[in-house]
Amino acid sequence: MGIDFSQIAGRYERYSSVQKSAADILLGLLEIKDADDVLDLGCGAGNLTRKIKAMTKGRVVGIDPSEGMIKEAMGKNKDTNITFELKNAEEINYSDSFDVIFSNSAFQWFRDPKKTIERCYTALRKGGRIGIQAPAKKIYSPNFIEAVEKVEQDARTKSIFAHFRSPWFFMETPDEYGRLFEDKGFKVAFSKIECIKTNYTPGEVFQIFSSGAIAGYLNQDCYDTKINENYTDTFKKIVKDAFVKQANDEGKVELVFNRIFLIAVK
Ligand SMILES: C[S@@+](CC[C@H](N)C(=O)[O-])C[C@H]1O[C@@H](n2cnc3c(N)ncnc32)[C@H](O)[C@@H]1O
Q1: Which stretches in the chain have pLDDT values below 50?
Q2: Residues with CB under 6 A from ligand 1
Q3: Which residue's CA lies nearest to atom 16 of ligand 1?
Q4: pLDDT tens digits for range 150-194
Q5: Are the CB atoms for 57 and 81 separated by under 8 Å?
Q6: Does domain 5-265 have CATH number 3.40.50.150?
C-alpha cells in the first residue's frame, strides 16, 4: 500500500518543476557539445533525457530502476533514438563509453553512491565529465522537514512514522561531496550547495512534494512495519495542511531547497 516512483511516473513531468529548473542550471554548467555521447543516470520519465537528445547528435542513454518511469520514458520518446534501460545506477557496466554523465535529482536515492561513482569513472572516456544536481544537507528543504515533523508529532500517525527509515543520502558540505568523487579518481571542477528559494501556492508545494519526497516518505520499503491507506491518507492531509500554514499573506509559500551542483572530470 505504499507509493514509489512507478505510481508517480504518469504525472511526474507535470509536477517536477523544481527538478526541471535545477536541471537547467546543471545543463548550463555541463555545456553538452553536439557530438557528445551522454548517459542520464536516474532519468525518471525521460523529459530531461529528451532535452539532452536535442543538444547532441551523439548516443543518449537513460537508466532508471523504476519500471513505471522507464515505461513512461519509452512511451513519450518513441520517435527519438534514445535508449532507456531498467537498472540501478549501481549496476551500470559501461567502459569508456560516454563523454558526459548527467544526473539530476537522483543522487540522493543511490543506495551505494561510492560504487556508483566508481562505475561512472569507468563509463566515461578520458576528459569526460559528470554533472550531479541533488538535494543536499539533512535539512534539504526546511518546508518539507517542518511538514513531516507534524506527521511525527500527530497522534494519528506518530506510532507508524516512528518506523520510517530514510532512504536518502545527504552530505552537509560541497567539500564532502567533492571528496567522494576525488577518492575515485575524478578532478572536481565545480562543487557548490545553493539555497534556492521560490514562491509557490501551498497546492503547488504539495505537488512538488508528490513528485519526489513522497516516494520515500510513503514507500512501504522505507518502513519496518506495515503502512495502510488510512496512514498514507492522513500523512498527506497533515503535510498539505502544514503547507497551507506556511503561506504568507499573499497566499504563497517560500519553498527553500538546498541543492548540490557538482561537476567532476575524468
Ligand atoms: C526525482 S526523480 C528525478 C528524475 C529525473 N532525473 C529528473 O530530474 O526529472 C528521481 C529518480 O531517481 C530514480 N532512482 C532511485 N534510485 C535510483 C538508483 N539507485 N539508481 C538510479 N536511479 C534511481 C527514481 O526511480 C526516480 O526516477
Answers
A1: none
A2: 5, 16, 19, 23, 41-44, 48, 64-66, 69, 88-90, 104-106, 109-111, 212
A3: 109
A4: 999 999 999 999 999 999 999 999 999 999 999 999 999 999 999
A5: no
A6: yes
